[in-house]
Amino acid sequence: MSDPKPVQSNLPSQQDAIAAALALYPARPFAVSDIGSQTGWLKAAGHDPRNLYVSGPMGLATSVALGLASVRPESQVLAIAGDGALAMNLTSLATIAGAKPANLSILLVDNRVYEFTASVPTPTRDLDWLAVGRAFFGEAQCLRLSELTGTRWAGVARPAMIVADVAPAPGKPPALGLTPAMIRAEFLRATRSS
Amino acid sequence: MAETASGGDRLFRSIVAARPKLVTGVPDGMLAQTIMLCEASPDFPYIACAREEECIGVACGAAMAGERAIVMVQNAGLLNSLGAFATMGLRYGLPFVIIVTNRGALADPNGYDIEKREAFDAGVRPMARVFDFDAGDLPDDLIPAAFKWAEAARKPVILALEKRLGGEAAP
């Protein structure tokens, strides 16, 4: 087993990484976030009717995003998953690679802890997520957020994956403050107006 | 050799009649014929998932956009997916249709299926509406009717298909 990855103090926050990934698109994509940290930080990065806050279980965002991408093929969809969450639904990468949605991407935010669970370290803290993504989607379809620009991202074929190393947050994100009925109604309107 | 499911073609025609936007699933022998017909259908995409819980997520993603989605899994697969079914399907009130092959019936006595059926009865029926059907004698309007029910109830509906002995009554 390799040595644990060093914790770097110059890493972006999860909120900033999510905002930077969304900014790669010329028009706001649908953003589907996993329960807990990703949902909280997505909302903190900017609430938008196109945000779909998944209420569980951990890791399901990639599958929900695949279903959405399939019924809205003209729209770009970005699934936002934490490293702990994606490890719980790793098979979804195989499914997405097989389905080949031409409008779906995954943002993997890797803070190496279960942020909502007292920041207990994840079992994947030593995993090379870039290599994992490239194994499923190909070398050119899995890139680090830090090396992407809007122009470069526009030229990347989908399905694709962005890996962002992020700093563990000192606390949890602000509460979502939305009921399931509110989330569903607002998101439904957004999907019908797109 | 693939298990032949009588009524597989009839189930497919009922699926087409409901005009789903997508169908997703994980194979079971009783569903194999229907799945292959769905894979070849030009009317909707069939998303082959690696694991059943993913199917629930895929269907929820489509339903969140107001589109019709169908899941096809075995009873053990739905048991693997109850967290997703509860925290997405039930919590958000999403009207999609789950077709479950309820293995381990009197006419389907594989030893490895018996506990799946008992767990399905104990774990799924108390939390969701399940309608039971003879897999060999499915109504033509089954899937359109299931969507009408789910959309009126604003929740997922489960159609449990099983092999029946001649004259055996529904559970």
Q: Can you count the beta strands of chain A?
A: 8
User: What structural class do the secondary elements of chain B suggest?
Assistant: alpha/beta
- Mean pLDDT across all residues of chain A, rounded? 94
As residue ranges, the low-confidence spans of chain B are none
Number of continuous helical runs of chain B: 7
CATH class of chain B: Alpha Beta
Number of beta-strand segments of chain B: 6
Give a description of the structure.
The complex is a heterodimer of chains A (194) and B (171). Chain A is of the alpha/beta class and 194 residues long. Chain A has helices spanning 14-22, 37-45, 61-71, 83-88, 91-99, 129-137, 150-154, 180-193; strands at residues 30-33, 51-53, 77-82, 104-110, 113-114, 120-121, 142-144, 160-165. In chain A, a hairpin with a 5-residue loop joins strand 5 and strand 6. The relative contact order of chain A is 0.20. With 171 residues, chain B is an alpha/beta fold. Helix content of chain B is 40%, strand content 17%. In chain B, helix 7 links the parallel strand 5 and strand 6. The radius of gyration of chain B is 15 Å and the shape is globular. Classes of the chains: A alpha/beta (194), B alpha/beta (171).
Q: In a nutshell, what does this entry contain?
A:
The complex is a heterodimer of chains A (194) and B (171). Chain A has 194 residues and is an alpha/beta fold.
What's the layout of helices and strands?
The complex is a heterodimer of chains A (194) and B (171).
Chain A: H1 14-22, E1 30-33, H2 37-45, E2 51-53, H3 61-71, E3 77-82, H4 83-88, H5 91-99, E4 104-110, E5 113-114, E6 120-121, H6 129-137, E7 142-144, H7 150-154, E8 160-165, H8 180-193
Parallel strand pairs in A: 1-2, 1-3, 3-4, 4-8, 7-8
Antiparallel strand pairs in A: 5-6
Helix pairs in contact in A: 1-2
Chain B: H1 8-17, E1 22-25, H2 32-40, E2 46-48, H3 52-64, E3 69-74, H4 75-79, H5 82-90, E4 97-101, H6 114-123, E5 130-134, H7 142-153, E6 157-162
Parallel strand pairs in B: 1-2, 1-3, 3-4, 4-6, 5-6
Helix pairs in contact in B: 1-2, 3-5
